[in-house]
Design a protein that fits this description.
The protein is mostly beta strands. It contains one helix and ten strands. The protein has one helix at about 20-30; strands at about 1-5, 10-15, 30-35, 35, 40-45, 55-60, 65-70, 75, 90-100, 115-120. Strands 1, 2, 3, 4, 5, 6, 7, 8, 9 and 10 form a ten-stranded antiparallel β-sheet that branches. The longest helix has 9 residues, at about 20-30. The relative contact order is 0.33.
Length: about 120
């Protein structure tokens, strides 16, 4: 499964693993939301609500596509957040791991808080 995320200054694609959360997101596409930023993480609400999966993680690699179950949001880290230790990508709480961005995660630097963001099947 591949998804495309678009915002005013750019876009990126991601490849999702076959997980229950990925399947739920896939079925909900397309979605439109408003982006928020937290350090070097972009996140935005979705209409999907799922439980935390057993392999959920809080510290992930840049470019990970994660689902924050506490906020029903996609979380896209590309660098440290305010709670990171050194250069790690530390999410607010453990998140379901959906997959990873296909290209350079630094493209997310162009997302501004409040930007409209659209997620669709690629």
């Amino acid at each position: 499964m591949r998804i495309r995320m678009l915002w005013p200054a750019g876009q990126t694609t991601a490849t999702l693993r076959p997980t229950p959360t990925s399947e739920a997101l896939w079925e909900a596409l397309p979605i439109s939301s408003s982006a928020s930023t937290w350090g070097k993480e972009v996140y935005f609400g979705t209409p999907v609500s799922v439980p935390r999966e057993t392999d959920a993680q809080q510290v992930v690699e840049p470019g990970t596509v994660a689902f924050w179950t506490d906020g029903d949001s996609l979380a896209l880290p590309y660098g440290p957040t305010p709670i990171s230790r050194e250069d790690e990508c530390r999410l607010a709480s453990p998140c379901n791991l959906l997959g990873s961005l296909d290209g350079d995660p630094q493209v997310l630097r162009t997302v501004r808080s409040g930007d409209p963001i659209r997620v669709e099947r690629a």
